């Protein structure tokens, strides 16, 4: 008898009752939400595309420097480009974000391709030159990440807002 009372006290404290089946209620709430507040098709497509962009073999490059956070402001300077540095092991990716696009360098220099990820729109791969440099004339709009592909490695940066 005490065991049953102890169990009921724990259930009351947790805010649920073991005898109450939440399955049908949850299903009914999901159907109501689908009718009253449906998921926009564009948002669903972005979610599907973002998952498709996920690369399980990729190493994640950590943001180690962001001029919006880490730099000392210069008095009178306007339209200062955003400088970003990402690191993944021995690979460093320096990126400058401007209104004209992206400019960056892979260190140490190596043959590679860079993709600018931005939701469902992935830009055409950019080829890195002999010094590890790359540019794009289209600035990212909204959240973006970079994917670096070499012959034997894939590195993806954290997602940031432009």
Structural class: alpha+beta
Number of helices: 4
Strand content: 35-45%
Rg, Cα atoms, Å: 24 Å
Q: Kindly state the mean pLDDT as a whole number? A: 80
Total number of β-strand segments? 11
Please bin the fraction of helical residues: 25-40%
Shape: elongated
Cα distance, first to last residue? 63 Å
Task: List segments where confidence is low: pLDDT < 50 over at least 5 consecutive residues.
Answer: none
Main sheet? 11 strands, mixed
SSE string: HHHEHEEEEEEEEEE
Task: Summarize the structure in short.
With 162 residues, this protein is α+β, with helices and mostly antiparallel strands.
Please explain how this structure is put together.
By secondary structure, the protein is an alpha+beta fold. The protein contains 4 helices and 11 strands. The chain has helices at 2-14, 23-36, 41-53, 67-70; strands at residues 59-66, 82-88, 91-98, 101-107, 113-118, 121-122, 126-127, 133-136, 143-149, 154-157, 160-161. Strands 1, 2, 3, 4, 5, 6, 7, 8, 9, 10 and 11 form an 11-stranded mixed beta sheet that branches. Strand 9 (143-149) and strand 10 (154-157) form a beta hairpin. The longest helix has 14 residues, at 23-36. The chain starts with a helix and ends with a strand. The mean pLDDT is 80.
